[in-house]
Amino acid sequence: MYTGTRVSLLFLVAMTVGIDGAAAQSTSNKPEESGMEADVTKIKGALLGNWESIAPEIRPSKNPDGSLKPFYLKRAFKYLPSDRFELDVVNSADPYGAVPLARIKIGGHMLWQGPHPIAPGAQKVDFVADEIYEVTPLAQGFADILNKVASAGYAPWAVNSAQSIFGKTFAPFGLKEGTNFMEHDLVYLRGDLLFWGARNIDGRGFDTEQNRPTNLQIPLTRK
C-alpha cells in the first residue's frame, strides 16, 4: 500500500549519497533481506493447513451511537498455497457460543508487509477478501434485522440461506459497492498456535495502518 512512497524516498536517498554509496548500502543489506525472506517462507510453510478457535472469543465493537458492545465469535481458518486463505466466522449472541446469530465466509489473499514488533517472528499481514464474502443468518431475529437494514440489492434474508455480499454495498459491515474488504492485521505462529491481532479496546477496526493491532488475540489451534 505504501510501496510508491518507499520507492520515491529510496530514489531520493540514492541521488543524494551517490551511486557508490547506494551500491555499498545494497550489498550490506543483502544478508538481512535474505534472512527475512527465508523466515517468511518458513512461516508460510508452517502456516499451511486448517486452524480453529480454541473457544469462543470476545472482541469489542461499537454500537451506532459509539458505545461499546461485546462481539462473540468462533473462527475456522485455512491457509492455502499462493497466499490464499479461507475464513469461516460464526457470531453468537452469548459468550459460550450457544446462540449463533450468523456465519460469515471470507476468501481472498494475504499480503505480507514485514516484521511486526509484538514478538520475534511476528509479521504484519493484510487480509484482502478479493474472492468470497458471504453472510448466512442463523437466527430469525438477525434475518429480520438484515431485511430492514440491508434489503436493497438482495433477496429476502432467511435463516440458513447464504447470500454473497462480495463487491456490494452492505451497510451492517460498512462495505461499499466495488470495493474489497481488507484488514491490516498481524500473524504470529508459535508451534501449533496461530495468533492474530487483538481488536483495539475502543472498538476500532483494522481499517488503516495506524489501526493495525499491537497485541495478540486468543490463538487458533491446528486442526
Descriptive key words:
globular, 3 helices, eight-stranded antiparallel barrel, disordered N terminus, alpha+beta
Structure write-up:
A hairpin with a 2-residue loop joins β8 and β9. The model is unreliable at 1-34 (pLDDT under 50). The protein starts with a helix and ends with a strand. It has three helices and ten strands; from the N terminus they run ααββββββαββββ. It has 223 residues and is of the alpha+beta class. It has an eight-stranded antiparallel beta barrel with strand order 1-3-4-5-6-8-9-10. Helix content is 24%, strand content 36%. The longest helix has 29 residues, at 19-47. It has helices spanning 3-17, 19-47, 140-149; strands at 49-53, 57-62, 68-80, 84-92, 100-115, 123-137, 163-164, 182-190, 193-195, 220-222. The radius of gyration is 20 Å and the shape is globular.
Mass-distribution shape: globular
Query: Which strand order does the major sheet show?
Result: 1-3-4-5-6-8-9-10
End-to-end separation in angstroms reads: 32 Å
Poorly predicted ranges? 1-34
Q: How many beta strands in the DSSP annotation?
A: 10
What is the percent of helical residues? 10-25%
Tell me the fraction of residues in β-strands, as a range: 35-45%
Give the biggest beta sheet. 8 strands, antiparallel, barrel
Please tell me how large the radius of gyration is: 20 Å
Please provide the ordered H/E string of secondary-structure elements: HHEEEEEEHEEEE
Mean pLDDT across every amino acid position: 85
Number of helices: 3
The secondary-structure class comes to alpha+beta
